[in-house]
Amino acid sequence: MLDSLVTSKTRVKLLLKFFAHRNSGYLRSLAKEFDESTNSVRVELNRLTEAGLLLAEDEGKTKVYRANKQHPFFEEIKGMVSKFLGLDDLMEKIVNRMGKVEKPTSSEITPKALTPEQSR
């Protein structure tokens, strides 16, 4: 699905990397991870950054990229990536296996003080 909408395989890999998890990365590590040339990764990083989908921050001499959570389409792209990876189906199966889950009362989630014997 995602690869039919986005024609660049490198761009698809970058979208999966940054929108599937809270990942960050820099040019050389991404090129090595994807087994792509640094130039092809750089071109796509620049395109995604210019579109506002990625943020680039300088950390010393290295430019680190991460998804822009403030972008208006962040949640939609994250949802598409999850569907592409099958994470939405997996989460639904896990929730269904759990059965009915009741909301805890405030007394159940309020931390209780430990006795001196428990804190040892």
Task: Give a structural overview.
- Helix 2 (9-20) packs across helix 5 and helix 3 packs across helix 4.
- The mean pLDDT is 80.
- It contains 7 helices and 3 strands.
- The chain is elongated and about 60 Å long.
- The protein has 120 residues and is α+β, with helices and mostly antiparallel strands.
- The chain has helices at residues 2-5, 9-20, 27-34, 38-50, 74-85, 87-98, 106-109, and strands spanning 24-26, 54-59, 62-67.
- A 3-stranded antiparallel beta sheet has the order 1-3-2.
- The longest helix has 13 residues, at 38-50.
Feature tags:
alpha+beta; single chain; three-stranded antiparallel beta sheet; 120 residues; elongated
- Let me know the number of strands: 3
Share of β-strand residues: 5-15%
Task: Kindly report how far apart the N and C termini lie.
Answer: 55 Å
| Principal-axis shape | elongated
- Considering DSSP H and I runs of 4 or more, what fraction of the residues is helical? 40-55%
Report the mean per-residue pLDDT as an integer: 80
